[in-house]
Target: CCHC-type domain-containing protein
Amino acid sequence: MRRKSQACSSHTEVLFTDNRGRSKFKSDRGRDKSRSKSKSRYKNLECHHCGKKGHIKKYCFQLKKENKIGEKQEKKNDRDDNVATAAQHEMFVVCDANMVNVARDDTCWLVDSGSTLHVTSHKNFFSSYISGDFGTLRMSNGSLSYVVGKRDVILKNANGALLKLTDVRYAPDMHLNLISARRLDEEGYHNTFGDSQWKLTIGSLIIARGKRCSNNLYTLQTSIFRDMVHVTQDEKPIELWYKRLRHMSDKGLQFLIKKNILQDVKKVKLDKCSQCFAGKQTRVSFKSHPPSRKSEALELVHTDVCGPIKVSSHGGALYFVTFIDDFSRKVWVYSLKRKDQVLGVFKDFHALVER
Model:
């Protein structure tokens, strides 16, 4: 009996939840009446915005839709004005009343024809570096930036060519990488600006290429050449003294060690020095041979063919052949237009000397 009563109660609850919500058979009389009144009111009127009949401009759905799209676009533009992003080849400068913000790519260099120096704000770009107080740089807006170091920067371009920028100034507050076209011109390079491109050449070799961005600035996208590494080797004290004393002999070094003249050196133990072996070598003299000239004329004849010669003779010859008698050193010379004429000339020479 308990199970049956529970089943009945659950069945009742299911029926109750099935009937929840708005009824499907609810009358729409009131809504139909309001719609019919609005349609009948503006039935013959034409909208001044879209040109359709049945409504006025105040209730135009197309106008409301356009207004919503315009509001969304204005909000998007407001957000873009507050944020600046830099792509790989772009650089944006955002200016306010008393503040300048720069968004740029660190590997991008700005080619400036008005700058007198190469400038960077990255210390790790330098292949060699000297720190110190090197004055200040004055910007176009009148602000100053302190220079705390300088040296050389080597750039590797997309075509594999290397561009060495000498005397580059390190200014941490600069926030830009500047290449001075004037300095490149003084170093022998040729700058060409045109067709939205910048090209740097030396002679007929193209060193670097850049392009003009949307902000009318010429930029160079490059990388830092880091294959050259400066290494200092910790040498042994005896080897260091050996080089300082111009490769002194082991006996001389041992004598200086006994006198306690060489610091931090107790014994002489050196590797074989290739420079010393090369310096102590002697050249073996050539053996003298008695003269081997023949004792009779035409016993031995030396011959040789020379050519082709770049400039032909008046007769059009590009080759010549020589016959030299070893006994008398008499020389016969014949000019040839082609190399295959050597056999015929030899026959003529043989007939001449056999007379």
